[in-house]
Design brief:
Order of helices and strands: HEEEEEEEEEEEEEEEH
Radius of gyration: 65 Å
Number of strands: 15
Number of helices: 2
Oligomer: single chain
Distance between the termini: 190 Å
Largest sheet: 5 strands, mixed
């Protein structure tokens, strides 16, 4: 009887030990340790300290990412200088077409009359082209001193080989023999206080355009019946040689 009772107690004690061991193993698997007298205690697992922003920069594809998890701001891409579109340069005005050649006359020339010391009793007529194109001095000047009713004759031998051509600003010349040098060949002399110069056209016979009225010296110009003129000349020297 005693032996059976002892065996029974031994088996019961062994079963209690096995059950306790099983309970401890189960608590270890779930992280809890149970005691007979208190609530379960969860095993504390030490965790690593949270990294600071200074040492938690991760490199992803060559670009740094801060510990905040936000991607760094992307620098604005330069698009390069914009093309500057200025106001188109104004076109240069077209050059005016050259004026057509015309006949020299009072409206497109300026005429002066100046007495000469040599040869004596001579006057030089100077005609300057004031127009924008070429003009031609045809023939000889048809001069009228004062109230004369006719124009003096031309010195035939003074005719040039070519028509006198004046570009803008250029001058042509003719000389006027006012009176004889000794008075033997002149008569009906008088002092003229005004002068009109008329211009010939291509035919050499007609008067064209406006007349010129160059002023005479204050004392006037003395003329007589020996009055004559030269053809228009391209140079002053040719004009005063007659």
């Amino acid at each position: 009887m005693f032996v059976r009772t002892s065996r029974t107690r031994l088996i019961t004690a062994a079963a209690s030990v096995a059950l306790a061991a099983f309970s401890i193993t189960a608590c270890s698997d779930s992280g809890d340790i149970k005691t007979a007298t208190g609530p379960s205690l969860r095993a504390t697992v030490p965790t690593a300290p949270a990294p600071t922003s200074a040492n938690t920069t991760a490199t992803t594809g060559g670009s740094a990412t801060a510990s905040t998890g936000k991607a760094p701001a992307t620098a604005p891409q330069s698009t390069g200088p914009k093309s500057v579109t200025g106001t188109p340069a104004p076109k240069a005005p077209a050059a005016p077409s050259a004026a057509k050649p015309t006949t020299c006359e009072g409206s497109n020339t300026k005429t002066t009359a100046a007495p000469l010391n040599r040869p004596v009793n001579h006057m030089l007529l100077t005609v300057t082209n004031t127009g924008s194109g070429t003009c031609y001095l045809y023939g000889y000047p048809a001069v009228r001193f004062g109230e004369a009713q006719s124009v003096p004759p031309v010195i035939t031998d003074s005719k040039p080989r070519a028509v006198v051509t004046l570009q803008p600003g250029e001058s042509g010349y003719a000389s006027v023999n006012l009176s004889s040098t000794d008075g033997s060949n002149g008569s009906h002399g008088y002092t003229a206080m005004s002068l009109a110069v008329y211009f010939h056209g291509p035919s050499g016979n007609e008067s064209v355009g406006a007349a010129a009225n160059p002023p005479l010296p204050a004392k006037g110009a003395y003329v007589d019946d020996s009055l004559k003129v030269t053809y228009w000349q391209q140079s002053m020297d040719d004009a005063v040689s007659w």
